[in-house]
TrEMBL record:
InterPro entries reported in the protein's UniProt record: Endo/exonu/phosph_ase_sf (IPR036691)
Gene3D superfamilies the record matches: Endonuclease/exonuclease/phosphatase
Annotated protein name in UniProt: Uncharacterized protein
Source taxon at top rank: Eukaryota
Length: 121
């Protein structure tokens, strides 16, 4: 009965089903002379269509193997930069200076009130 699921195994299986996940590593990731065990997992949403490849590479450097997954990645486009310009062909310097003077004068007058509610009346 060594292969019967433990409480933790059942809980992991329930979570995989509940969140609709897919386990991509299916071959053993730890190999010794007496056993082969899958101890590494890579999970994605089951609906993820961008997975290209996944697997295990046995390097022979230790009893633990390398796991990998390859996924398509889109490069986001940069937001367009909007530049606002003004047409100065018919620029009237006097009118512009008058507009600035009036804007600052109206702004300055707001500070002459002790009560801010009166400033906007």
């Amino acid at each position: 009965m060594a292969n019967s699921p433990t409480h933790h195994t059942k809980r992991l299986s329930d979570l995989i089903n509940e969140f609709q996940l897919k386990q991509h590593i299916t071959s053993p990731t730890r190999i010794t002379t007496t056993s082969k065990t899958l101890i590494d997992i890579i999970m994605t949403k089951a609906s993820d269509t961008k997975i290209i490849d996944s697997g295990v590479i046995h390097l022979g450097l230790s009893d633990h193997s390398l796991v990998y997954i390859c996924r398509k990645v889109g490069i986001p486009r940069a937001e367009p930069k909007i530049v606002e310009t003004r047409q100065f062909k018919y620029f009237n310097s006097s009118a512009f200076q008058y507009d600035l003077k009036m804007a600052f004068q109206n702004h300055y007058n707001l500070y002459n009130y002790a009560d801010p509610n009166h400033a906007w009346e």
